[in-house]
C-alpha cells in the first residue's frame, strides 16, 4: 500500500508527463519501419515455406502491438505535445491496428476514470459481475457470462469480433467528429486491404495478415485482461472509490523480460500508466524506478499471470476474485439462510 501523500508521487511523476519529440519520432521509426519490412519479408517467404511465414508473422505481430501502444499514447495526448500530431498519427496507427482513434479514445478515457468502480462498469473494460449480481441473474445471462469469460471466447473469438466487427460501427451518442473519424478509419482499412489483395492476391494477403492480426489481437486483449484481473485487485462502490487506490492496487505491474517490455511499449508498468496517463510509454519504467512507494504494488510475472484465467467473478465480501466452482459455497449458504428464515 502507498502511505505517502499525493504531493510526494506527483512531484516525482510531473517531469515525465511531457513527451519528448525526439523519443516519439524515433519510436515511430524503430516500430513502423521494422513492421513494414517484416510484413514484406513474410510475403516473400510464402515462396519458401509457410512455416517461415508464420515465424515472421509472430515477430511482426510484436511490432503491431508496439504500434498499438503508439496509438494508445496518442489517444492520451501523451505521444506529442501537439494535438493535431496526436490525431494524425493516432488515426494512421489506428488504421494499421483496425481501431478508430476518436471512438477508442472516448471509451478508454471512461475506463481510466472508472476503473475499479463497481457503480460505473461497462465502458471500455472487461465485463465483470459480482457474486450477488451473478446469483440474481437469469440462467441465459449466467450462461452468456460464462461463455464471455471462457478463455477460448475471450482470446480467440474476442479479437475477431472486437477488431473486425465492433470497431467498424460508431457507438450510440457519438459526435460528428467521432463518426467521421470512424468512417475515415474504415475507408483506410478497406482501401489498404483491397489494394494489397489486388497487388499480392487475396490468398497471400490472408496468409500474411491473418496470423499477424490474430496473434497481436490475442496478445492485446491478454495484456488488458491480466493487468486488471488478478485475485485481490481493486473494486469499490462509488462512495468508497479512490482514483489513486484504483490505479495502484487495481492495476498490476506486469514484470516481463526486457525484450517484451520493449515490444509492449512498457504497458506492463500499468499502475504508473493509470496513475498518470499523460506519461509517455518510454518514461513509464523511469517513473516506476523513481520512487520506492510506486514499486510497492501487485507484481505478476509470465507464470503467475496465468492464474488470472481462473478468476471470473468478484466477491464483494472478501474483495477478491473467485472461481465459478466457488459459487457452490454461496448457493449452500443462501439455501441454509432460506431454510432458517422459514
Q: What is the terminal-to-terminal distance?
A: 44 Å
CA radius of gyration = 21 Å
Count of extended strands: 4
> Order of strands across the widest beta sheet?
1-2
The outline comes out as globular
Assess the beta-strand content as a share of residues. under 5%
Can you summarize this structure?
This protein has 342 residues and is mostly helical.
Characterise the protein shown here.
The chain is mostly helical and 342 residues long. It has helices at 6-13, 21-45, 50-75, 83-97, 101-114, 131-136, 139-148, 151-165, 176-200, 202-226, 243-249, 258-263, 270-275, 284-290, 327-341, and strands spanning 253-254, 299-300, 313-315, 320-322. The strands form two sheets. A two-stranded parallel ribbon has the order 1-2. A two-stranded antiparallel ribbon has the order 3-4. Helix 3 packs antiparallel against helix 4 (83-97) and helix 3 crosses helix 10. The longest helix has 26 residues, at 50-75. The radius of gyration is 21 Å and the shape is globular. The N and C termini lie far apart (44 Å).
